[in-house]
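Notes, Module 5: Reading structure tokens.

Key idea: the token line is not a picture. It is a compressed description, and you learn to read it the same way you learned to read a sequence, by spotting repeated patterns. We will look at two proteins. The first is printed below with its tokens.
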Amino acid sequence: MNSRLETRGGRWGAALLPLFAALVLAGCATAPAELPTFNLPAQFKEQAADTQGSWTRAQPAEAQPRGDWWRSFNDPVLDQLIERADARNTSVQAAAARLAEARALARSTDADLAPQIGLGAGAARSAGLDRNQSPRPSTLARAGFDFSYELDLFGKLSGASDAARLDADSRAGLLQSTRLLVQAEVAQTYLALRAVDAERVLVRDTVEAYRDTLRLTQSRERAGDVAELDVARVETEVASNESDAMTLDRRRAELEHALAVLVGDLASDFDVGAGEWSTALPTIPPGVPATVLSRRPDISAAQKSVLAAQARVGVAQAAWFPDITLTGAGGYASNDVGDLLKWSARSWGIGALLALPVFDGGRREAGVQGASALLDGALANYRTQVLVAFKEVEDQLSSLRILAQQSGVQAKAVASAERATLLSNSRYRNGMISQLDLLDARRSELQNRRQALQVKASQYQATVGLIRALGGSWDAQAVSLAPTDAQQAQVAAR
């Protein structure tokens, strides 16, 4: 008797050994790494703060409203263009479709946590399929429902559900990032177009001035006051400036066509009429804290991707645990279709299934390693996004600072060139200088005026670039960069 009990005990121990090993491995499983935090300076370097200030941390907050930041430029045409781009831009539509796909996948993954119930009916006629069945043909009809429910004792299903939800959240952040990128591109393209319009006016006015000079010079050449060389010089200036005007016409057409694509229109049907460049240039308030980077949706998307990768590491580790499924079936079964729905034909069954692979050739271990590698990649991408965000803001701040200085210097150059042209014209009419000196003075004035326009255009471009780098606005509230307690609890549970 004792030997039989010992034999049975040994058999039970051998049978339970895989389950015990799985539980031991679960206990030794390494928890996923926590989301890294960054010490963010209270001010950007380019703000040239008098003091270094305190250090703080901030969390991406994609739920905060971005606001209609482009309205600060006070340009109705720009407002209309961005509204059209929000509704019709194909990149935004594609990003929205990817978000809808991710949310549908998350709902599909959530369905694995719920009981699965199905209805079915069927009939089969057979004979002699096994030794216990009569060789005479018989019919078996069945109608009823099936039930199955997998117990999520080890968090594998809930972990997959959390990962899918975080993927959807990441897609939501990417949609915000795409929308912000399109808005910024529309604003920058439109402002570049208006800058070209202003430059075209300047060049065409210059062409008309040179044409007036050419007519005067030709009249003086016919009177014998000047040589043919003077006429040739003015004709060269007229042709050169006409060529510049045509180059600006081509540039404007390209910008208008690019704007048509951004707002989702055909270039052949799109037109932005020439207008005066009266767009306001907003000033980003000084003392912007670095925590405003929390508004950048691409950082938020990268953070959610890290959390999703962490959840998938937990799912891969949970693959070492057994799968336990409860099953059930109920309905009617009869050898006569006419008796199928009689109470006497009722049938039912319940069961429980436990599955635990003993040897899988290293499949589960490879799954854990693959999930860990994906987590490492997500962490690296997250850190890259933060570093790039700081670079972009610092780039635009430095550009605005230097452009402001350059604008002041260039304004002085324009004033001096205008004064030089006025004096040269007076001296030329009095015969004190040659026509070549006058043309040089006018050429210098045109060059400085065009350069002043280009500096102004660069200021607008850098302002839009800074707003985009700040995540669409500059009044974000500071919060913690670490993940929320609920997110950390979900990751730890894996």
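Here is the second protein, with the sequence above and the tokens below, as before.
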Amino acid sequence: MKQRLLSLDTFRGLTVAMMILVNNPGDWGHIYWPLEHASWDGCTPTDLVFPFFLFIVGVSISYAFKDKQPDSKTLLKILERSLKLFGLGLFLSLFPKFDISVVRIMGVLQRISLVFFFCSILFLYTKPRTQIGVLAGILILYYILMTMVPVPGIGAANLYAETNLGAYFDRMILGIPHLYKAVKVWDPEGLLSSLPAVGNGIAGMLAGYYMQNRDQEVSKKLLNLCLIGCMGMLVGWAWDSAGFPINKSLWTSSYVCWTAGMATCFWVGLYWLIDVKGYQRWTKPFVVYGVNAITVFFLSGLIPRILRMIKLQNAEGEEVNLQVWLYKSWITPWFDSPYNASLAGAIILVSLWCGILWIMHNKKIFVKV
């Protein structure tokens, strides 16, 4: 196994653990606000999770492909991994009914696969200067599309949930039966909004490339990256103030700048603490998540679906699924507050997965996708 960058594995593990925490509350009706997405504009801690992961994908690409050539073997591996990720996402959407006529086509793993594919190709065929230009071009183009291009059949450009240009593309190309069921007529991981999401991956690639620069001292590289990250957040805040709001569902350009800047600063902090100063003893619970990230994300989405398929009766004689029964029987009786019970349910799940992943790590079981 190659020598891994411990700060990056820790960052990935923290992100995935947080992803599981926010995706699996005990009760969706009782969630503390930091563990919820912003209702529309704005950014909560939960809204940082997905773009942080895409940033990490970009950093990983810069390390994994730094000595690779764009030959047929490398390109085939990129395509194969991208298709596997997309396929796993489709499987989660299809399970358990496997009804192709109403399957959601896009999703979290699907977006990760697209970002990985396009960023990998960009990294192999271009230099950092070109990548910076592509990043800027993507963000400006998306801004123009979303704020200046009229929406067919609706009218002027707008940033409302159901009538923006991205929602129009989702309905036109994917079709309403294949969109996110909770909102029905648009998709938070839709096609057009996947374009700026690539920007988070590019930002990670650039940060990773700069971190590997051997012509500068580590302290100077960390300081410069931190300043760049702060500049990114400042640009995001300014763009938000100028009328293109920070918005995860639309994945606005201001949101990319804000989250990519914050991810850069966060990684710099972890790099300094773990790889430079050597404070590593606390990292293993997150490393075990980080080295099997896609596996635990996939299974944490699949197993609840299986539990919901199993029906039984509760103490009142009502039929409930096994997931609800476990929560109501084993967790809620211990708490007076439904919010605390809901949070406890999520923390217990994260802890259970940590135990499983710890055993896998000790046995050197690393599932590659």
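Summary for the second protein:
- The chain has a mean pLDDT of 96.
- Residues 229 and 261 are 4 Å apart (CA to CA).
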